[in-house]
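Hi F.,

I've been meaning to write this up properly since the lab meeting, where we talked about keeping a consistent format for the predictions we share between groups. The idea is simple: the sequence comes first, exactly as it goes in, then the structure tokens exactly as they come out, then a line or two of notes. No screenshots and no reformatting. I'm using this chain as the first example so we have something concrete to point to.
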Amino acid sequence: MPDLTTSYLGLSLSNPLVASASPLSKKLETVKRLEEAGAAAVVVYSLFEEQITHDSLELDHYLEFGTHSYSESLSYFPDFATYQIGPERYLEHLHRLKESVSIPVIGSLNGVTTGGWVEYASRIEKAGADALELNIYYLPTSLQQSGA
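Output, unedited:
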């Protein structure tokens, strides 16, 4: 049998088959099946910094909506435990994958701010990721902004 060993993101892989970031990595059982089928590594579905920011701002908006109309409305706060805004669910899932499979588990992050992607990248590393796929994303929407 030919030697298919390769290097990817500084990792030594048994072959070049890497399951890329997709919904396939959302379920532990599916990742186990990918490993059994011969995938040498898996890239976990992407964590989107802009989605976390959007969700946080949206929650703030709805928590404040109407609170200036009646003073009593300040006492009707929702149960914050039911809101999953931050990256915790993603980090827990990544950690569970890492504990359950022997192939490298690679985090994936779409970052939009310097401070944000550095913070999330650090947390993904602490969750146990073997490497990080980083997509830096910025969509200029202002016609007044220069191309530079």
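Notes:
Residues 11 and 137 are 25 Å apart (CA to CA).
DSSP finds four helices and seven strands in the chain.

If this format works for you, I'll send the rest the same way.

G.
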